[in-house]
Amino acid sequence: MNTYLFSGEEYDLQLQGFKEDLRFYLSEIKKSKRTLDIACGTGRIMIPALKARANIDGLDNSPSMLKTLQRKAKAAGLKPKTYLADMRNFDLNKKFDLIIIPCRSFLHLLNAKEQKSALLSIHKHLTNKGRLILNFFNPDYNRMANFNGKKEFHSYVKDPVTKNKVKISAINHFYSADQILKITYIHEELDKHNLLVEKKEFKMMMRYIFRFEFEHLLALTGFKPLKLYGDFKRSNFTDKSREMVWVCQKV
């Protein structure tokens, strides 16, 4: 399994302002009696859900992420229940009617053994006919070829401590034989004169998944797909869809 090298603060900087999926996940959480947010990170989904009075727990394998989540939650007057655990093999001794894995985090599982192990652990923690909802990108070989090895600008954000502007970029390398994506994220902090103050790089790997490959994984681990959307607005999945948003059910 791939592990984030970001600290909690660096992760928040990386995803500063990203809310594309928030309304979708909150609407599904509100329908549920008890939710588990796997790879909850620093609480990007979990904290807004708690503010909406949802019954939601969080699980992550990063102490730094969970420490940042707890700090942010305390500042908001919230008391989240979190677990330091590995999605591949966890035992919380409780069941949920919804488990979510937002932000493409399932792709940190780098082979079929890890993927199946995680899905079986999730299956064990779901109530009868409980749902699993997750998303990851739709592999597009044309896009992969166009961006392979090239530096791609993502966004400018503001460092909350220094107040300096930070340029976020990434370099992607795709390896089709193993379906592996190696990413180098680049944070370039700039002063008021746009001069470089500090540069940081974070490397990680993901294993991308195709549509019917995932359907086979679901069938092998006791799930069936209910819906496959092409975005968080619940559009139909098509050749042009950038995302796969799965709503699955325990069987």
Note the main attributes of this structure.
Rossmann fold, 2 domains, 251 residues, alpha/beta
Tell me briefly what this model is:
The protein has helices at residues 8-14, 22-30, 46-51, 63-75, 112-124, 141-147, 211-220; strands at 35-38, 56-60, 81-84, 96-101, 126-137, 151-158, 165-175, 180-190, 196-207, 223-229, 243-250. With 251 residues, it is an alpha/beta fold.
Strand coverage percent: 35-45%
Order of helices and strands: HHEHEHEEHEHEEEEHEE
**Beta-strand segment tally:** 11
Mean pLDDT: 96
* Secondary structure category: alpha/beta
Number of structurally distinct domains: 2
Low-confidence stretches: none
- Tell me the span between the first and last alpha carbons: 26 Å
Q: What share of the residues lie within helices?
A: 25-40%
Oligomer: single chain
Q: What is the CATH top level name of the largest domain? A: Alpha Beta
The CATH architecture of the largest domain comes to 3-Layer(aba) Sandwich
Strand order of the largest sheet: 3-2-1-4-5-11-10
Report the C-alpha radius of gyration, rounded. 18 Å
CATH topology of the largest domain, by name, is Rossmann fold
Corresponding CATH superfamily of the largest domain: Vaccinia Virus protein VP39
Number of helices: 7
Structure in words:
The protein is of the alpha/beta class and 251 residues long. It folds into two domains: 8-138 and 209-250, Vaccinia Virus protein VP39 (Rossmann fold, 3-Layer(aba) Sandwich); 141-207. The chain has seven helices and eleven strands. The protein has helices at 8-14, 22-30, 46-51, 63-75, 112-124, 141-147, 211-220, and strands spanning 35-38, 56-60, 81-84, 96-101, 126-137, 151-158, 165-175, 180-190, 196-207, 223-229, 243-250. The strands form two sheets. Strands 3-2-1-4-5-11-10 form a seven-stranded mixed sheet, sandwiched between helices. A four-stranded antiparallel sheet has the order 6-7-8-9. The longest helix has 13 residues, at 63-75. It is globular, with a radius of gyration of 18 Å.
